[in-house]
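Weekly puzzle thread! Below is a chain. First person to post its structure in token form gets bragging rights.
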Amino acid sequence: MQRHSAANVVMAGFLVAIGVLALVVLPNSFQHMVDWKAATERYLTGGVAFLDRTLRSIEHSWPYFAQAHVADKATAKLNEITGNAQQYLEPVALAVASWLPSIFLTPFLAFFFLRDGGRLRHMLASAVPNAFFEKTLFLIHEVDRTTRSYFVGLMKLTLLDTLTLALGLWLMGMPAPLWLGLLCAVLSWLPYFGSVVGGLLVVLVAATDFPNSSTMAYTAIGLFAVVRMLDDFVYMPITIGKSLHMHPVVTVMMLVIGGEVAGVSGLMLALPLLGVVMVVGQTIGKVVKDERLMARYHHARQLRAAQARADLGIT
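Winning reply:
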């Protein structure tokens, strides 16, 4: 397909998806909002009950915790939090609202990058001296390849996480294992924090749907610990790390550094930005070390200076 046709097809598909969401999914969601609220309260109550049972068991084994009344204090605090959940919705809503301009701007930018990407590359390449033209084209190609490889690797990682979690949850006997696995895999796009939220959701489901079997919740915690280890040391290196040609140690360290420096945004952008910076650094290193290329550049500058002096009649 031609670039314009491909961009139009992609945006048409996006608009159809938005239309279906607005006309079908959202009205149905509003109708079941009361049911969702009741289900949320049920799962929160089940989670609090599971934590209370766990703390009571710890107190039974360790008298020091019983003397400190850890279970009573923790349960009372959690009941207070779940009872006043409305006050925590306001900061969450404000945080979501702060992202709305970027979300609405994304389709606009995506359409014009898809349609006019070639023109943009031509504009960037024409702004550099002729001696570096080939290296500039190579740099643009490598940056494009790196970012594309990152998102392809992310999709592969999501597939592996979904299959692993779904298999584990199915063996445990959890309800809707595939949907739970997919939800947790998508949440893990946000490294660490998203995995914790996904694991907490599954533990709440296990504690609520199997109130008489604490083993299910403990098994869910163990499953997520195993998947987390597989993510860090197996899945991520062979998907995202391999796509970006990064060593596993560098991959993990960049996630830690990105989270410390820029929080949630740093976790999400650490790896693709590192890939782009690596490509830019390698290309600049090749240019600086290429004596023939630098000689061509300096000679071209001398010729332009001589031509300018001749045009101005300066000897």
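Puzzle host: Confirmed. Bonus trivia for everyone else. Residues 248-289 form the longest helix (42 residues).
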